[in-house]
Amino acid sequence: MVRTRFPRDVTKRATPPRVRAAPRPARRRTHGIEPPMRLTQGFIPTIKETPNEAQIASHRLMLRAGLVRQTSAGIYAWLPLGLRVLRNIERIVREEQDASGAQELLMPTIQPAELWRESGRYDDYGAEMLRIQDRHERDMLYGPTNEEMITDLFRQSVRSYRELPKLLYHIQWKFRDEVRPRFGVMRGREFLMKDAYSFDLDHAGAVVSYRKMMLAYMRTFQRLGLKAIPMEADTGPIGGDLSHEFIILAPTGESQVFYDAAFEEIDYLARGAGGFRHDSAADLERFFREMTSHYAATDEKHDTVKWDAVAPERRREGRGIEVGHIFYFGDKYTKAMNATVTGPDGKQVHPEMGSYGIGVSRLVGAVIEASHDDAGIIWPESIAPFRAAILNLKPGDAACDAACAKLYDALGADALYDDREDRAGVKFNDADLMGHPWQLVVGPRGAASGKIELKRRASGERVELTPEDALTRISAGVDRRA
RNA sequence: CGGGGUGUGGCGCAGCCUGGUAGCGCGCCUGUUUUGGGUACAGGAGGUCGUGGGUUCGAGUCCCGCCGCCCCGACCA
């Protein structure tokens, strides 16, 4: 048995090692776990008619395109196509968390009631918390969030202010027993969430962590192809006095939002002059001022006087879906759970905390709400389950088969090969429904003369060209940021 | 949790009022046909009618209980 020891000095480092900004691999989907896929061999059950329970667009399309299946109210199984999207979103969220200096860990889904009794939330949280007992009749719960557990982990091991700040996150399934689950994965009971927690010595430090996360969020949403607006929010049951929620725009959103066009004009991913760095206090300050100086409000908090002060051509209005929420709440938990570090003056202090959530599974639905048409989903390049679909209009035809094999070979895991023996219309419809950014249409008509058709899902634009040129167009068309 | 709706082959639905051999469309399987936007024809497989009880000679249908799911509202990543 090999014994592993953690190097001592790791915990002594005052600040985490600098992480390079947003790694962007040459090939996007390089987790190495996703195999190429032929439709005849895959498990991608598309359906023609809309299941009766699905009312909103994203829910309907997720069921029809074979992304998910519901197993109970508000609980979903993720099928291969849906899982790819979920993983792609998760990957971008992770890259931006890492880039901000946060460290990933993984906490369990099941938590002991004891921790929640310490913070006082075991009783406060109410019926939304799923409570269970193990065989020894110990009270347990399926975690709806992780403030208590992270605070417990922190207090066990962090002793000195020299080890601060700590910015920790995980991406884990949560359960909140919603009274009324709805809108498919947008308001499920079980959902995948990225939750981060910051620990700082004082208020000033906590504010820096808060701003870092805010920047990470804006970058994340931009990479997902979404227009996100940060809005001041109430802190709710998490408590605290500084909080923002992030609303993305979609025609079917739950609430009306009003905001200044400034939010759309900022490039959060820009480098160099005008860009924002996570490790520069000045940049973070400037960034935070940008985020808070422009008008933004939901209908509940809408202030018509302030709204009238915004130049008319800069007023933007639309429907919004909440996809993230960040909180600063000081020593609420460190005090209740007695987590302390030794300060510079030798006295014990309760670190200041913040928590930061992104609804990863909700984002799958939210992106679809923001990007679809009558025919189906229109995936942004950055999270599409496949970059392209290869439609073999006549399997068995030598020229078609050869052309498809070549394309499939070149694209590998980035392509979904529709090799079904079905009518052309079936394949066109399914490809539109599944929403691949590109469609490579190979039919006997063009194959004879060495041509295929390339269709752009978003615009509907089609061109006839050689397979080589099509492949070039596809890779050239990748916007690595969005 | 209040209000409303609904549950019948994989999906969408009819049948229930007025009890009497469980049907239609799509999908699926076989064959023919068609071949660039869900083709056509023929044959076939597949259903404890959500569930428990009751009424009746007989219940998908009538009565009572329970459960699931959906929508509106209050509540929320």
Sheet with the most strands, sense and barrel status: 9 strands, mixed
Dominant shape: globular
**β-sheet strand percentage:** 25-35%
At CATH level 2, the architecture of the largest domain is 2-Layer Sandwich
Number of domains: 2
In which range does the helix fraction lie? 25-40%
How many individual β-strands? 24
Uncertain regions: pLDDT < 50 for 5+ in a row? Answer: 1-32
Task: Give the class-level CATH name of the largest domain.
Answer: Alpha Beta
Cα radius of gyration in angstroms: 24 Å
CA(first)-CA(last) distance: 47 Å
- Which fold name is given in CATH as the topology of the largest domain? BirA Bifunctional Protein, domain 2
Average of per-residue pLDDT values: 89
Structural class, from secondary structure content? alpha+beta
For CATH, the homologous superfamily of the largest domain is named as: Bira Bifunctional Protein, Domain 2
What's the helix count? 15
